[in-house]
Write a structure and sequence with these properties.
With 280 residues, the chain is mainly α. The protein has two domains: 3-43; 49-279, MetI-like fold. The protein has eleven helices and no strands. Helix 4 (100-114) crosses helix 6, helix 8 (178-206) runs antiparallel to helix 11 (246-279) and helix 10 (233-241) crosses helix 11 (246-279). The longest helix is centred in the first third of the chain and has 41 residues, at 3-43. It is globular and about 70 Å long.
Length: 280
């Protein structure tokens, strides 16, 4: 066998193994989605969106309390996390640049993005829940915001750095102060990328369960008071899916389907915005 034939053989083997691995991975993904869609659609009904939690055996139970609670928790997390993430990313890109402090913040952000969410939950439990003496919606939103900030920070930093420096120089040459250059020139050039980061950050925290177990806990009834334990879709899925009652398990499948479709939609929208920017 010649050297060229040997290289072709190795290439074919590696290509075959890579293709097989991709098929196996996609196969498992389609299997999971198939089971989720089949069981989720079967369990869906209008009662799920209009009724609150009910005892086992009651067919009138729904997920209204969990849906509203999840929306409130994620909304407050975004209210805290989005501005902080964008402003921090702006500092790194426009002021910190390649300074030692900026690089340290970037490294910490990368570590935070890969940190287990249960660790964030335990941290917020120690600094918020324990001093307050009880679980609360505020603690849950703070935990989700902490998870969200590094994602938005790094995305904003990367997107702002992609804006050509010539645009900044042109604005400075016209006499615009730095803050106006950032708001009216840099942000405009990177708005699609920043929005993508925000959507991906929201999608990430919308599916978190572990930090909420330590912070907002759960409630089987509708509660909009952020100073008290609050229901969430993710914790409700955990409770219902692990219960021995068939009707609760069906509600768990419906909740998992709703949450998965929501996260999938946000990810698709985020990717479309990113592709739109690349197309420019």
């Amino acid at each position: 066998m010649t050297h060229t034939q040997k290289r072709i053989l190795i290439n074919d083997i590696v290509m075959a193994l890579s293709t097989l691995s991709a098929i196996i991975g996609i196969g498992f993904l389609l299997w999971i989605l198939g089971v989720l869609v089949t069981n989720g659609l079967e369990a869906l009904s209008t009662t799920i969106f209009t009724a609150e939690g009910a005892p086992p055996g009651n067919s009138e139970g729904g997920l209204k309390h969990a849906l509203i609670g999840q929306l409130i928790l994620v909304s407050y997390a975004a209210l805290f996390g989005v501005p902080l993430g964008i402003l921090a990313g702006t500092y790194l890109s426009e002021y910190g640049l390649k300074s030692k402090m900026a690089e340290t913040i970037r490294d910490i952000s990368d570590i935070m993005m890969s940190a287990p969410s249960i660790v964030i939950g335990a941290f917020v439990y120690a600094i918020v829940v324990a001093p307050m003496g009880h679980f609360s919606g505020w603690a849950g939103s703070i935990a989700l915001a902490i998870i969200m900030i590094p994602i938005i920070l790094r995305t904003t930093d990367d997107m702002l750095q992609l804006v050509p420096s010539t645009l900044r120089e042109a604005a400075f040459a016209l006499g615009a102060p730095k803050y106006k250059v950032i708001i009216q020139v840099v942000y405009r050039g990177a708005k699609a990328g920043i929005l993508t980061g925000v959507l991906l950050g929201v999608a990430r925290v919308a599916g978190e369960t572990a930090p909420l177990l330590f912070t907002s806990f759960n409630d089987n009834f509708l509660n909009t008071n952020m100073n008290e334990p609050m229901a969430s879709l993710t914790v409700t899925i955990y409770n219902y899916a692990t219960s021995p009652y068939e009707d609760w398990q069906q509600l768990g499948w419906a909740a998992a389907f709703i949450l998965s479709m929501f996260i999938l939609t946000l990810n698709i929208i985020g990717r479309l915005f990113l592709l739109k920017r690349k197309g420019r």
